[in-house]
């Protein structure tokens, strides 16, 4: 196996492990604990879970588009033109149960891992994305997968910080 193939497999494995890592970060928390946060401005654990799942669900479409229609334009403007906190309000992160979001996160990751492993060359496929304040650039599937892994892990660490701040 070439170094690139083993590198891609490591990227895919890390991506696929995030649902278990998120579930481990939530282990033992009560429904009341899900509403804890570290500051007035920060998101509560419940909101973080929904944000991870929703973001992952949206970027899943970028991955699928790149594999199915490589070198096309992926449009995400509708999302980037609204601040994150506003999406949290519009999608009612504060009051929703986390179980459906956790199930969706696990299912989406499992689906994409299977797609990546069964589609030759999938990690090298690319689309053009127009980024706010950056402009348009080509993005490989491997970059999206790594970015979503990093995004989930950052927020999982944030949940750990909230738990530590509240001695949980």
Question: What's the layout of helices and strands?
Answer:
Elements: H1 3-26, H2 45-68, E1 73-74, H3 77-80, H4 84-90, H5 99-118, E2 126-131, E3 135-140, H6 141-165
Parallel strand pairs: 1-2
Antiparallel strand pairs: 2-3
Averaged pLDDT:
93
Looking at the overall shape, the CATH architecture is Up-down Bundle
CATH-assigned homologous superfamily: dinb family like domain
What is the name of the CATH class?
Mainly Alpha
Query: Strands of the biggest beta sheet: in what spatial order?
Result: 1-2-3
Main beta-sheet strand count, sense and barrel state: 3 strands, mixed
The CATH topology: Four Helix Bundle (Hemerythrin (Met), subunit A)
Which term fits the overall shape? globular
Q: How do the helices and strands follow one another from N- to C-terminus?
A: HHEHHHEEH
Number of strands: 3
